[in-house]
Amino acid sequence: MANSKRDLFLKRRLRVRNKLRKVNAGRVRLSVHRSNKNISVQLIDDVAGVTLAAASSMEKALGVVGKNNVEAAAKVGAAIAERAKAAGVTEAYFDRGGFLFHGKVKALADAAREGGLKI
Hints:
With 119 residues, the chain is of the alpha+beta class. The protein has one domain (5-114): Nucleotidyltransferase, domain 5 (2-Layer Sandwich), CATH 3.30.420.100. It is 40% helix and 21% strand. The chain has helices spanning 5-23, 70-87, 104-114, and strands at residues 28-34, 39-45, 50-56, 92-95. Strands 3-2-1-4 form a 4-stranded mixed β-sheet. A hairpin with a 4-residue loop joins strand 1 (28-34) and strand 2. The chain is globular and about 45 Å long. The mean pLDDT is 90. Keywords: Ribonucleoprotein, Ribosomal protein, RNA-binding, rRNA-binding. One of its GO terms (cellular component) is ribosome. This is one of the proteins that bind and probably mediate the attachment of the 5S RNA into the large ribosomal subunit, where it forms part of the central protuberance.
């Protein structure tokens, strides 16, 4: 019985999220979502159930609207690091969801690290 791509994605997402729940020591979660056209990221406090900061490639202020590439993901990563500092967050767990840590997701994480966010 072959699993569909969607089934494999969901299994991978649950595996990543469950591992984060086991090791989470009160830190916030940096959750990434990547679509075919855009990439977005949120800083989520799971204890309080609130989003502390968010950034997306759909924001006109970042100047990457309509671009689906590694440079756009890096700008989103830098923006979330800046907004995390403003929210008083210095370290977070990186929740890549079911996405592979490669390409745009990796560029976003690296830019957030360079911006001062400890992942």
